[in-house]
Design brief:
The structure holds two protein chains of two kinds. In chain A, helix 3 runs antiparallel to helix 4 and helix 12 runs antiparallel to helix 13. Chain A has five domains: about 140 residues, Four Helix Bundle (Hemerythrin (Met), subunit A) (Up-down Bundle), CATH 1.20.120.160; about 140 residues, Histidine kinase CheA-like, P2 response regulator-binding domain (Alpha-Beta Plaits), CATH 3.30.70; about 60 residues; about 180 residues, Heat Shock Protein 90, CATH 3.30.565.10; about 130 residues, OB fold (Dihydrolipoamide Acetyltransferase, E2P) (Beta Barrel), CATH 2.40.50. Chain A is an alpha+beta fold. Chain A is about 45% helix and about 20% strand. Chain A starts with a helix and ends in a 6-residue tail after the last strand. In chain A, the strands form five sheets. Chain A has a six-stranded mixed β-sheet. Chain A has a five-stranded mixed β-sheet with strand order 6-8-9-11-10. A five-stranded mixed β-sheet of chain A has the order 20-12-13-22-21, with no helix packed on it. By secondary structure, chain B is mainly β. Chain B has a single domain, classed as CheA-289, Domain 4 (OB fold (Dihydrolipoamide Acetyltransferase, E2P), Beta Barrel). Helices cover about 10% and strands about 50% of the residues of chain B. Classes of the chains: A alpha+beta, B mainly beta. At the A-B interface, strand 21 and strand 22 of A face strand 4, strand 5, strand 7 and helix 2 of B.
């Protein structure tokens, strides 16, 4: 039976359960007596076990089974939650996660038995008077074995009640030298489509003979109203082996009990019971290998990336698409109109309608792609807990705004950088517990992870109350590593010095730990975030803490932009960064340190001449008025001097292709209505 | 099989003209040849890039072989073409040439390898065809240099 169609669901749900388990165990660690949590854990562990079993992942099943045992004891009050137990459970969760990642990449759970984890779990059981359950488990195992060995009980067909006409048919057949067999088929308990298997058995048997009776009835079997076995009486001219083969050819049959059938009133049959369990199992194994082989050969992850979408959102989409079709039809009918004056008017109406529909469509598609940031950050509490143990520092993670939504593509990429920053805060940011006490700070260090939406951006802040960044140390380290000269260091402002942290191969940690400090660090984070169209800022106060602020665009594909003209070239400036558009007199331009600035309603704003930045040919005569687009990044503002405003437009961002070197200030390109290409100005890089 | 498959050792080249010199581009790299269209300048890109064009919704950088080979700039004419080259999957680049002449098939023994060439990695060899010489462009080489 090919289970690959269920694999995706399995992977998704296992991830969910793992997340629940991680969350709940964390709660349990701080509140060992919380019975609701224990129940929750027990339920999740139980579902995990069941799912793993259904999918035939035996190792995973075994591991989760042991975990379930532990919590069943805890739930019954026979065990208390100890730190050792929590550790063992976390190890167990890691192991399950490992299985899962194996399954994701190859649809096979791998061959790590994780004996040590199982041993640790069982050790917890034994030390805390939980031995009874181990015995119980053993007992059930033993009884199971007994069941298996006693073939006698398996001949359920002996209990089939036979009506007179059936009796007649049997005797008649015997008179004709036909064979009458009693059959009991046991279907594999992991089988999902029992009815289909049973149907195949029936079909097979009908090809070699005639089924005169089955228990449960055919209708019930078709409706899957049976456990894992069913019995039949079959008349066939074929020898017993041939009939048996027909049945065993059907996959996922655990066991077939087949023998000559005598009408019960006759002497009891005790002869040759054929239990072919072993053969069957081997066959099954073969089959399994066969089915898993092709999946493996691809080498690609088996699971596709998927988003769960609220059905309501899909309905909205569907409605909008129908409206789009109506709008198109409207345009078609307008083009057929003869009177040019009215056609022009209705044409414009249709265009407006179309515009409204596409804007709504864009919005809805965006919403479909939006995922709460929770799906990324919810693994962090667990990580911080582990780090806390590993580094021997007391710390806690406080997260807010987990429901902030971001585009799926951004979400996928943001996990690693965030993790990196948290590790960074935990390792470099926070002082050791002893140092904290000495400094009179609270013993437990705090890391804040805060996310919120800000216009068309999402801001994520990672803040710690640790020692802050020692600017002098950073400078010294940069000089030592040859990033800057001493003169440069002298000239540097505090902000510039902190920016040094984002240079490649820069780490201020004296000791290299396996948590962080290997020199691949913040520069990777910065690159990644800039690659997503966002930016990172640091603010720090020595002795009080550090705050990293990550700003990310809500979406990557379509934005609103202001189209401007510089000489005869068209450029797009993302609307979300624009504050105002000003018309200023050239005579109002002042100079600060030989740089042009304007004083706009009390704020001094530096000016950037876009034509110079973009290497445009100089203007012949300077006009009296300049059009200035004021853009912002954080609290900083800059005025971009342009020639002409063209208007606002919705643009689709496209990459500029490989091979060509692109300056930081150009973030991409877009295709205008007439097919012309316009470059998009990344105003963040100019502020 | 189509006629692009040639007997072993022989390769097909598209012959293009820059001034009076003929260059050959291995046909297996070529995706498309398009007429000159509006090129949007990209500031601060490498000097030999003319800009980017819109090829059916895809934005493709266009380099000028003239600039690349430090030849004198020349007005685009009616015969100017952009050859869309695809050195690897999912990456295209346009090459601006004065004129596209023909497709030739060159046997391996009619190609002379060049050990040195003054333009660096740009050539793979010189082919002889009907008493004319064709400088064979090393597309990979040209692209790789761009990466630096």
């Amino acid at each position: 039976m090919d289970l690959s169609q269920y694999l995706e669901i399995f992977i998704d749900e296992t991830k969910e359960h793992l997340q629940t388990l991680n969350d709940q165990v964390l709660i349990l660690e701080s509140e060992p007596d919380n019975i609701d949590t224990v129940n929750e854990i027990f339920r999740a562990a139980h579902s995990l076990k069941g799912m793993a079993g259904t999918m035939g992942f035996k190792r995973m099943q075994r591991l989760t089974h042991d975990m379930e045992n532990v919590f069943s004891e805890v739930r019954n009050g026979k065990m208390s939650v100890t730190p050792d137990l929590v550790d063992a459970v976390f190890k167990c969760l890691d192991a399950v996660e490992e299985y899962l990642s194996c399954i994701v990449s190859s649809s096979d759970e791998g061959d790590n038995d994780n004996e040590d984890v199982i041993a640790a779990l069982n050790a917890c059981l034994e030390t805390d008077g939980g031995s009874s359950i181990v015995d119980a488990v053993m007992e059930t195992a033993v009884t199971k074995k007994e069941e298996v060995t006693s073939g006698e009980d398996k001949r359920k067909f002996l209990h089939i009640g036979i009506a007179d006409f059936e009796k007649n048919a049997i005797t008649e057949a015997k008179a004709k030298n036909m064979n009458v067999y009693g059959v009991t088929v046991y279907i594999d308990e992991n089988c999902i489509l029992k009815a289909a298997r049973a149907f195949l058995v029936f079909k097979g048997l009908e090809s070699v003979g005639e089924i005169i009776k089955s228990v449960p009835g055919v209708q019930d079997i078709e409706d899957e109203k049976f456990d894992f076995d069913f019995s039949m009486i079959v008349i066939s001219s074929k020898p017993i082996e041939a009939v048996k083969k027909v049945i065993t050819n059907v996959s996922e049959i655990k066991e077939v009990v087949l023998e000559e059938y005598e009408i019960p009133s006759d002497v009891e049959v005790v002869s040759s019971v054929q239990v072919e369990k072993k053969d069957e199992n081997e066959k099954k194994e073969d089959l399994k290998k066969k089915t898993s082989a092709p999946a493996k050969s691809g080498g690609k992850p088996v699971a596709n990336r998927s988003v769960r979408v609220d059905i309501e959102k899909l309905d909205v989409l569907m409605n909008l698409v129908s409206e789009l079709i109506i709008a198109k039809n409207g345009l078609v009918s307008v083009s057929n109109q003869e009177d040019s004056k009215t056609s022009m008017q209705s044409f414009n109406e249709q265009i407006e309608y179309l515009e409204r529909v596409t804007t709504n469509l864009h919005e809805s598609v965006m919403k479909v792609r939006m995922v709460p940031i929770e799906s990324v950050v919810n693994r962090f509490p667990r990580m911080i807990r582990d780090l806390s143990k590993k580094l021997g520092k007391d710390m806690e993670l406080i997260m807010t705004g987990e429901d902030t939504e971001l585009d799926r593509t951004v979400i996928d990429e943001i996990g690693d950088p965030l993790m990196h920053m948290l590790r960074n805060s935990a390792d470099h940011g926070l002082e050791s517990t002893i140092d904290r006490l000495k400094l009179g700070k609270p013993q437990v260090g705090t890391i804040l992870l805060n996310a919120y939406q800000d216009g068309n951006n999402v801001t994520i802040e990672v803040e710690d109350d640790g020692k802050g960044i020692d600017v002098e140390k950073v400078k010294a380290s940069a000089i030592e590593k040859g990033h800057i000269t001493e003169e440069q260091a002298e000239m540097m402002s505090e902000k510039e010095a902190v920016e040094l942290l984002f240079r490649p191969a820069f780490s201020t940690a004296e000791k290299i730990s396996d948590v962080s400090g290997r020199g691949v660090g913040l520069d990777v984070v910065k690159n990644k975030i800039e690659g997503l169209g966002g930016d990172v800022e640091v603010s720090t106060k020595l002795g009080e803490g550090t705050k990293f602020t990550i700003r990310l665009p809500l979406t990557l594909a379509i934005i609103q932009a202001l189209m401007v003209e510089v000489r005869n070239e068209k450029y797009a400036i993302p609307l979300n960064s624009i504050v105002t558009i000003e018309d200023i007199l050239v005579s109002d331009i002042k100079y600060v340190q030989q740089k042009e600035v304007i004083n706009l309603r009390g704020t001094v704003i530096p000016l950037v001449r876009l034509d110079e930045m973009l290497d445009c040919p100089p203007r012949e005569d300077e006009p009296e008025n300049l059009v200035v687009v004021i853009v912002k990044k954080g609290d900083k503002q800059t005025g971009l001097v342009i020639d002409n405003l063209l208007g606002q437009q919705e643009i689709v961002i496209k990459p500029l292709g490989k091979y060509i070197n692109i300056h930081r200030m150009i973030s991409g390109a877009t295709i205008l209505g007439d097919g012309e290409v316009a470059l998009i100005i990344d105003s963040n890089s100019l502020v | 099989m189509d006629e692009n498959t040639v007997v072993n050792g022989a390769k097909q080249y598209i012959v293009v003209k820059l001034d009076n010199e003929q260059y050959g581009i291995d046909i297996s790299f070529i995706d498309n040849i398009v007429r000159l269209q509006q090129i949007t300048r990209v500031p601060k890109a490498q000097y030999y890039f003319e800009g980017v064009i819109n090829l059916r919704g895809e934005i493709i950088p266009v380099m000028s072989l003239r600039n690349k080979f430090d030849l004198e700039a020349k007005e685009h004419s009616n015969s100017t073409r952009i050859i869309i080259v695809k050195p690897e999957n999912n990456a295209k680049i346009g090459v601006l040439v004065d004129e596209v002449r023909e497709v030739v098939t060159l046997e391996e023994d009619s190609i002379e390898k060049v050990d040195y060439d003054e333009q660096g990695m740009n050539l793979v060899g010189v082919g002889k065809y009907n008493n004319t010489l064709i400088s064979l462009l090393n597309i990979q080489g040209i692209i790789q240099e761009l990466d630096v």
